């Protein structure tokens, strides 16, 4: 057998120490630069952080691809959701005039918007790709208001780091960092393919986050909260998804 | 790193290797890290695939679109029509996390191997065929030998033949880059920075379909690789890829003990 020499042991030890030091320093730098996701815990924490940090460094200002009208999927697929319940049905039968989007947390003017309030903001339209983590996808036109207009109107503090958003459906909540929250393509969406947003696709309001997978675009949006301490919300993992093993960050 | 002089045809070479192992420490390390990463990618990839065992061509596709083909397996989601009247348990959450974590290991190991291949001239010395070996005749001779009886002699233990060289080269330089590329081409964030990554392939669903076929080819390579190890001497080859050398009885080894 070939026994490792003293020099080889020293080299191996050197690599080990350098690697550990690089890890510790890298971890500190990443935390300071906002490159550590809230679900940086457990066995998959390393992978979650590597993916989020690498993609965030690349994508801070990148734009999701937009498509031509003729590329819109003729029959987009609406993933089934749990039954919406009587309260939702009552709102729907009233044409959603009583639907409210509440904005609170680190804002100087906590607000509550009706659908017609939201339509007064400058409208934005995008034809983008929605990919589900399951593997299927569709292309659709989304009509709505860039989220940053609403956050601006409520006077969001510049020290907020995340926007937590909730569905009308209990326990369906998500959050995004400021790179996505202030991104011009992140829409509070009330329309789809030229019409109003169908119930199956999240009507009357859906948060559309086109640079991440479909599960970040939650349906039946009712609540936005600005926070600088995402770990203090709910399970501390940034959304309900990590409870079932999914990544908080879904750029891949 | 000093170049060893033993060549495939030299009988004297057999005594030299204890100084220069058959597989260097870095090759052995990256080999086994790749085994771990590939196995994790395979298991998690199959799990993710089961949530939608349908394939499309172009930018988009769902159960409302006509597929390119459907795998005849049950699905883990009720919304996917299959010919089975049951659905498998949904394991997508941890599968996706495992897939991307092992992808990082796979890519990091690959980069280490690749730099070694270039800077330590591993590619040039071990994998690039000698000019005189590169002919259809040489290839057909090797191929026929392989099909008749895989070689288990000393010569084959100490070098790669033409068929092995071409196979390893296509895995390292074609299949692995392609599987990484098509994987990245499915990421909405990566697409937003490098749209060409996906448009060059014809769309996100095309990338997914190609990713599937390249993975099948990689799996086929692994299966043949393992069968060949079995047929040509499991013990000596495992020894070579773990301890460094195929046999423990080489005289030269004693000088090192």
Structural commentary:
The complex is a heterodimer of chains A (252) and B (257). Chain A is 27% helix and 22% strand. Chain A is an alpha+beta fold and 252 residues long. In chain A, the strands form 2 sheets. A 5-stranded mixed sheet of chain A has the order 2-1-10-5-6. Chain A is elongated, with a radius of gyration of 21 Å. The longest helix of chain B has 28 residues, at 92-119. Chain B has 11 helices and 2 strands; from the N terminus they run H-E-E-H-H-H-H-H-H-H-H-H-H. Chain B has helices at residues 25-50, 92-119, 122-127, 136-148, 154-158, 162-184, 188-193, 195-199, 204-231, 234-242, 251-254; strands spanning 54-55, 69-70. Chain B is elongated, with a radius of gyration of 22 Å. The model of chain B is unreliable at 1-17 and 249-257 (pLDDT under 50). Chain B is mainly alpha-helical. The chains are: A alpha+beta (252), B mainly alpha (257).
């Amino acid at each position: 057998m070939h026994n490792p020499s003293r020099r080889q042991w020293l080299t191996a030890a050197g690599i080990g120490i350098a690697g550990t030091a690089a890890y510790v320093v890298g971890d500190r730098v990443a935390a300071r630069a906002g490159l550590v996701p809230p679900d940086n815990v457990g066995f998959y924490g390393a992978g979650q952080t590597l993916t989020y940090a690498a993609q965030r460094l690349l994508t801070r200002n990148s734009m999701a691809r937009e498509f031509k009208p003729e590329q819109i999927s003729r029959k987009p697929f609406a993933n089934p959701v749990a039954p919406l319940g009587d309260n939702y049905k009552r709102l729907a039968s009233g044409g959603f005039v009583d639907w409210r989007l509440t904005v609170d947390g680190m804002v100087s003017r906590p607000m509550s918007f009706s659908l017609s309030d939201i339509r007064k903001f400058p409208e934005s339209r995008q034809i983008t790709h929605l990919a589900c983590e399951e593997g299927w996808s569709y292309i659709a036109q989304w009509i709505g208001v860039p989220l940053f207009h609403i956050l601006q109107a409520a006077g969001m503090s510049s020290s907020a780091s995340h926007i937590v958003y909730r569905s009308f459906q209990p326990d369906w909540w998500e959050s995004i960092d400021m790179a996505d929250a202030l991104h011009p393509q992140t829409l509070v969406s009330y329309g789809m393919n030229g019409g109003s947003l169908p119930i199956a696709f999240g009507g009357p309001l859906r948060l559309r986050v086109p640079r991440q997978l479909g599960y970040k675009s939650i349906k039946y949006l009712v609540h936005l909260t600005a926070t600088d301490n995402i770990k203090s919300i709910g399970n501390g993992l940034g959304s309900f998804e990590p409870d079932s093993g999914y990544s908080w960050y879904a750029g891949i | 790193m000093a170049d060893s002089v033993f060549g495939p045809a030299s009988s004297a070479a057999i005594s030299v290797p204890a100084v220069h192992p058959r597989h260097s420490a870095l090759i052995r390390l990256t080999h086994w890290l790749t085994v771990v990463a590939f196995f994790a990618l395979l298991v998690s990839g199959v799990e993710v695939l089961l949530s939608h065992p349908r394939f499309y061509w172009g930018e988009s596709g769902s159960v409302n679109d006509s597929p390119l083909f459907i795998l005849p397996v049950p699905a883990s989601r009720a919304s996917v029509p299959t010919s089975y009247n049951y659905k498998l348990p949904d394991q997508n959450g941890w599968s996706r996390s495992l897939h991307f974590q092992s992808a990082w290991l796979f890519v990091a190991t690959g980069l280490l191997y690749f730099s070694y291949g270039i800077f330590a001239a591993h590619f040039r010395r071990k994998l690039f065929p000698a000019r005189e070996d590169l002919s259809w005749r040489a290839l057909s001779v090797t191929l026929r030998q392989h099909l008749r009886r895989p070689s288990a002699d000393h010569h084959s233990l100490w070098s790669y033949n033409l068929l092995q060289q071409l196979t390893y080269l296509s895995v390292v330089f074609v299949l692995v880059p392609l599987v990484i590329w098509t994987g990245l081409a499915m990421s909405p964030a990566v697409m937003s920075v490098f749209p060409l990554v996906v448009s060059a392939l014809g769309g996100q669903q095309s990338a997914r379909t190609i990713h599937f076929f390249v993975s099948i080819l990689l799996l086929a390579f692994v299966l043949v690789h393992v069968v060949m190890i079995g047929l040509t001497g499991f013990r000596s080859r495992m020894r070579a890829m773990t301890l460094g050398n195929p046999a423990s009885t080489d005289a030269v080894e004693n000088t090192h003990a």
